[in-house]
């Protein structure tokens, strides 16, 4: 499992085409939110921490698939190729991981 995870991370690093000086999507969104409303920026930071904590509570193979899809921008087919896993396995891991995240991240009141 660790070997697969590291191979996926290495592949993502090789595919990275953005210059280092460019803001990440998270940083850009935070900057846009914090410029308009500081309270909203605090809420965004809180939600981001909740998501990171929840991601750490799901199995590694599910977390990797979700991270590659959402932050890596890869399709399920691309994830299957880079992780050397069948497409059906990637789809199952994605579905199970998202279900777990939904249970771990109930709607805020």
Characteristic terms for this protein:
mainly alpha; Arc Repressor Mutant, subunit A; 74% helix; globular
Structural summary, described in words:
This protein has a single domain (2-104), classed as Winged helix-like DNA-binding domain superfamily/Winged helix DNA-binding domain (Arc Repressor Mutant, subunit A). Helix 2 (25-36) packs antiparallel against helix 3 (38-56) and helix 4 (60-70) crosses helix 6 (87-104). It has helices at 2-15, 25-36, 38-56, 60-70, 76-82, 87-104. 74% of the residues lie in helices and 0% in strands. The chain has 109 residues and is mainly α. The model has no long low-confidence stretch (mean pLDDT 78).
Shape assignment: globular
Radius of gyration: 16 Å
Average pLDDT score? 78
Please work out how many helical segments DSSP would assign. Answer: 6
CATH topological fold name: Arc Repressor Mutant, subunit A
Question: In terms of structural class, how would the helical and strand content be classed?
Answer: mainly alpha
Q: How many runs of DSSP E, i.e. beta strands?
A: 0
